[in-house]
Predict the 3D structure of the following.
Amino acid sequence: MLLTPGPRGAPAIDPDRPLAGRRVAIDPGHPGAGATGPTGYYEGDANLAIGRILQRILADRGAEPILIRNDREQMGLYERTTAAE
């Protein structure tokens, strides 16, 4: 993935720990919406489980992951975008 410099310029990156100090928003998607599969498993629960795994992986690599949602509460797109910012 190519990162383009923002208004503050390109961030300094430690080649040994490229995620150290980086804040990463994780949006598991489909809170309150989404499909239920043939086994009865809800899509939003699957997305949240994957988001939690990703959160641990990023934290182990030095990032500061922020999970946008951590439950089944419905959350609108505007709320999710605001939380990510």
Remarks:
- The chain is about 30% helix and 10% strand.
- The radius of gyration is 15 Å.
